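Re: that chain you flagged

S.,

Sorry for the slow reply, it's been a week of failed gels. I finally had a moment to sit down with the sequence you sent. For the record, here it is as I used it:
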Amino acid sequence: VLCTSSFVLPGVSTCVHLNDSVVYAVYVRNAQGAGTDERALIEIMCTRTNKEIHEIIAAYKVEFGRNLEKDVVSETSGHFKRLLVSMCQGAREENTTPDMAKATREAQELYSAGEKKLGTDESKFNHILATRSYPQLLATFSEYTKISQRDILNSIEREMSGDLKSGFRTVVMCVRSRPAYFAERLYQSMKGAGTDDETLVRVIVSRSEVDLVEIKQEFLKMYHKTLYKMIEGDTSGDYRKGLMTVVGSDV
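Prediction finished late last night. Pasting the structure tokens below so you have them in one place:
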């Protein structure tokens, strides 16, 4: 059971009555071990602000007596490990006004590192996507489309694979709209046969007091049905009641 100040939901082994950073730290810890849940690590570490990352790392140390970055390194490998290590730094630039000359230059660097060459220089993508501010990245993505005649997401789909692709894709989606990213995560957790309960609970719990209203609006816009109705049709019993209480009335 996962408990917060306002609701109780199944899905996490520990009952938490503390702040969001502790909840996130518990989720990160639960995503590790046998059968590492890379998508959960991506969802948490690639979507948070610098401040949130530092708070999660501190909470992780207090709750588990462990270094989060070292644990991530031991659980992952290759370029995906490098991306998560970059995210653990919580060192994304925070300028709000983009440098357009830099955007053009780095759009060209991304193009040269991917679409323009045989093979892909993943480290270049990692450096830019993990360290530049969201406004700077928006400008870079716009310039990238002018240079390559492709959207950056399309290039990532073509050039990357596996968890690294998922991580880069998550960064791009959050740069454009964090609520839209989480709306997609919720939809994917419920579509088709069966329900990915861990993802469904984790997203609703972690965003309930952040941007759940905006996520509900994006969900309706993207999938032409309300989040409330989809949960109602995909879950049952006290579990459904708990989720619907958190989500609130239909949009």
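What I noticed first: The two ends are 27 Å apart (CA to CA).

Talk soon,
D.
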